[in-house]
Amino acid sequence: xxxxxxxxxxxxxxxxxxxxxxxxxxxxxxxxxxxxxxxxxxxxxxxxxxxxxxxxxxxxxxxxxxxxxxxxxxxxxxxxxxxxxxxxxxxxxxxxxxxxxxxxxxxxxxxxxxxxxxxxxxxxxxxxxxxxxxxxxxxxxxxxxxxxxxxxxxxxxxxxxxxxxxxxxxxxxxxxxxxxxxxxxxxxxxxxxxxxxxxxxxxxxxxxxxxxxxxxxxxxxxxxxxxxxxxxxxxxxxxxxxxxxxxxxxxxxxxxxxxxxxxxxxxxxxxxxxxxxxxxxxxxxxxxxxxxxxxxxxxxxxxxxx
Length: 306
Prior knowledge:
It comes from marine metagenome. This is Metallo-beta-lactamase domain-containing protein. It contains nine helices and 15 strands. Strands 1-2-3-4-5-6 form a six-stranded mixed sheet. Strands 7-8-9-10-11 form a five-stranded mixed sheet, covered by helices on one side. The chain is globular. 41% of the residues are buried. It has two domains: 186 residues, Metallo-beta-lactamase, Chain A (4-Layer Sandwich); 90 residues, Rossmann fold, CATH 3.40.50. It is 25% helix and 23% strand.
């Protein structure tokens, strides 16, 4: 017998990357996230991994929406590929929308894309499903979880999150609203469980900022910091420290430059002391006055540092 409500993971379970989940009720489908997998050393010759979207391609007319939790590559990196196969509206937060738009422009898909910005607690329907986003804490601003109301009950998808009472952007996890969403119970919780088997808890972004500031303060020469281009809040912490310690910052790598310039335009990053300079300008500065921020923290073959 065919079950009317289905939850089908197409990637992201038991692995870091390729996040994609399908929720289906009769003739309606919603997709949560569309991410890349960065291959490890055990995958020689593989540049990137993407979820198998054959099922969605066969049922493309039933896909009512693509819901994106946040702007990390393992959640939006395969969206260009997916939208080249199916035509469905994409819903995300404002910053995530900006990151997605940049990707689709690069892939020449932006003209035909249907992109929608949603705010936390905003409700809308995608076919039979009532969808509502809620605020969570993560290492990139504007991260959200999703509540999907189905005829059988509410499904909660947390996206990536951590419990941080002093986040870098000052916006905490909205536990109060999450409790309201589940006051009548939840049919299913799909929760981030990265490192859940490790004892202890994840430190606050405030502690990361303090550690970065201490390292920058003590450094006597040129500083190179390697991180993900999507870690917007982390870059803001480095900008703040650079201003305190009379250093300039130069961004290295196409994605790093594109993301931070976009975040500056949208107000998610602030450079009030004008510490960001070009690579060319940085070459004329003393070594102890420069910080380079580059991509490639996991040794990705296409990243700037490698």
